[in-house]
Amino acid sequence: MENITKKLNITDVERRLLLPENCLEDLRSDLEANLKFKDEEGQEWTFRCRASPGGRSKPALYGDWFSFVRKKGLRVGDVIVIISDKEKNISAGGCFRIKIKKSTSKH
């Protein structure tokens, strides 16, 4: 998986984080999985990832995602970067890293 950079929209902060298609191809065999993420402070989060059979829709993150949004004060326009450690097998319990770039806009 390549690093994913996503500017958050209203759906991302209020309902679920939609990821680009095929970004989690290594997890396609599991249509639902708990994925571990570490933030910049080293706190670990578990986000539930859902993908549709056959890859017809974008994968989405749920679960602790909402707690993460609230705790970090994320808003529309903020940017997140998801980084995969290619040395670790994510499906075997490896961890993604997640970084936040706050928007300077007050919208």
From TrEMBL:
<keyword id="KW-0539">Nucleus</keyword>
<keyword id="KW-0238">DNA-binding</keyword>
<keyword id="KW-0804">Transcription</keyword>
<keyword id="KW-0805">Transcription regulation</keyword>
<dbReference type="InterPro" id="IPR015300">
    <property type="entry name" value="DNA-bd_pseudobarrel_sf"/>
</dbReference>
<dbReference type="Pfam" id="PF02362">
    <property type="entry name" value="B3"/>
</dbReference>
<feature type="domain" description="TF-B3">
    <location>
        <begin position="2"/>
        <end position="104"/>
    </location>
</feature>
<dbReference type="GO" id="GO:0005634">
    <property type="term" value="C:nucleus"/>
</dbReference>
<protein>
    <recommendedName>
        <fullName>TF-B3 domain-containing protein</fullName>
    </recommendedName>
</protein>
<dbReference type="InterPro" id="IPR003340">
    <property type="entry name" value="B3_DNA-bd"/>
</dbReference>
<dbReference type="GO" id="GO:0003677">
    <property type="term" value="F:DNA binding"/>
</dbReference>
